[in-house]
C-alpha cells in the first residue's frame, strides 16, 4: 500500500485557521499596526476566535498596544502558547521572545524567514476564525516568506496615509499582493483628516483624491478613512486596545466599516 505523504505540521496548523489575512503598508508609521491590532480586537469583540501575529521583526509594537510587553509565553504540548488577552484573542510577537526589548534585532533574510516559519508552525494557534499578520512595512523578505509558507493567504489589507510618498509605496504593496496572488480586501486611509478641537470642523490635511486614485488604478476599494484622533494613540500607549472598543469615537465608527469589509469579504 502506498502511504500518503505526511501532512506537514505547518500545513495542518494553517488549515485549522479559516481566514489568514496580512496587513501591509508601503511605509512605516502610517498606522499599519494600529489597523492590525484593532481588526483583531474588534473581530474578537464580535465573537470570533482571533490570533494576531506581530511579524514586524524590526519594529514590533503589538505587545505594547495590548499591555503584554513584559509577559513571556509558555510552552505546552502543542507548542508555544500565544498570550491570551481576552477570551477570543491571543497574540504572538518576536518582542515576547527576546530578552532585552531595547536591543535591535539584526538578522539577515534567512534568519527572519526561519523565525516567521517558527511563528506559523510552532505557535499553538489552535482553531481560529481569523489570523491577522502584522507585516513590516514594504515589500521585503517577510511578506514574501509569509506568502510562501502559507498555502493560501485569504486576503490583504493595505494601510496608507494620503501623502504622495506613502501613496507611491502603497502602489508597490498593491503590485506585490497581486504578484503573490493574495486578494486585496481593500485600502485603509489613515490620518488624512482631523476635527478641530475648538470648532469641530473637519480639516483635510493633505488634500484629497490620491488614495481613491490608487484604489481605482488597481481596481480595489477604499474600505475606511480613519481620522487623526489622539485618543487612539492614547489607548495604544496605555496598552488597552482590547478593552476600549465600545468607546464612542468617530475613529471607531469609521473603523467598524473596515471590520465589516473584512468580515464580509
Ligand atoms: P505603523 O505600524 O505603520 O508603523 P502604527 O500603527 O505603529 O504605525 O502607528 C504609528 C503611531 O501613530 C502610533 O503611535 C499610533 O498610536 C499613532 N496613530 C496611528 N493611527 C493614528 C490615528 N488615526 N490617530 C492618531 N494617532 C494614530
Automatic annotation (TrEMBL):
GO cellular component, one term: cytosol
Positions contributing to ATP binding: 26-33
Single Gene Ontology MF annotation: iron-sulfur cluster binding
Pfam family, one: ParA
InterPro entries: Mrp/NBP35_ATP-bd (IPR019591), P-loop_NTPase (IPR027417), YlxH/NBP35 (IPR033756)
CDD domains tied to this protein: Mrp_NBP35
Sorted UniProt keywords: ATP-binding, Hydrolase, Iron, Iron-sulfur, Metal-binding, Nucleotide-binding
Family recorded in the similarity comment: Belongs to the Mrp/NBP35 ATP-binding proteins family.
Annotated function: Binds and transfers iron-sulfur (Fe-S) clusters to target apoproteins. Can hydrolyze ATP.
Protein name: Iron-sulfur cluster carrier protein
Organism per entry: Methanolobus zinderi
Amino acid at each position: 500500500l502506498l502511504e500518503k505523504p505526511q501532512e506537514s505540521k505547518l500545513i495542518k496548523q494553517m488549515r485549522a485557521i479559516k481566514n489568514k489575512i496580512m496587513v501591509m503598508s508601503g511605509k512605516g508609521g502610517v498606522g499599519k499596526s494600529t489597523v492590525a491590532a484593532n481588526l483583531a480586537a474588534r473581530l474578537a469583540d464580535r465573537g470570533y476566535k482571533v490570533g494576531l501575529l506581530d511579524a514586524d521583526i524590526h519594529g514590533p509594537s503589538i505587545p505594547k498596544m495590548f499591555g503584554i510587553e513584559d509577559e513571556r509565553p509558555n510552552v505546552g504540548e502543542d507548542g508555544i502558547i500565544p498570550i491570551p488577552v481576552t477570551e477570543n484573542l491571543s497574540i504572538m510577537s518576536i518582542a515576547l521572545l527576546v530578552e532585552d526589548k531595547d536591543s535591535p534585532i539584526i538578522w539577515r533574510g534567512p534568519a527572519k524567514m526561519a523565525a516567521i516559519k517558527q511563528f506559523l508552525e510552532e505557535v499553538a494557534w489552535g482553531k481560529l476564525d481569523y489570523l491577522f499578520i502584522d507585516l513590516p512595512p514594504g515589500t521585503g523578505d517577510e511578506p514574501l516568506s509569509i506568502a510562501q509558507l502559507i498555502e493560501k493567504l485569504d486576503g490583504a489589507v493595505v494601510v496608507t496615509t494620503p501623502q504622495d510618498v506613502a501613496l507611491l509605496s502603497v502602489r508597490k504593496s498593491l503590485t506585490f499582493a497581486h504578484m503573490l496572488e493574495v486578494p486585496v480586501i481593500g485600502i485603509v486611509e489613515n490620518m488624512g483628516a482631523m476635527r478641530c478641537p475648538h470648532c469641530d470642523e473637519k480639516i483635510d490635511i493633505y488634500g484629497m483624491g490620491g488614495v481613491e486614485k490608487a484604489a481605482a488604478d488597481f481596481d480595489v476599494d477604499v474600505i475606511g478613512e480613519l481620522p487623526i484622533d489622539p485618543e487612539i494613540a492614547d489607548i495604544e500607549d496605555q496598552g488597552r486596545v482590547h478593552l476600549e472598543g465600545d468607546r464612542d469615537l468617530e475613529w471607531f465608527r469609521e473603523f467598524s466599516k473596515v471590520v465589516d469589509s473584512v468580515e464580509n469579504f
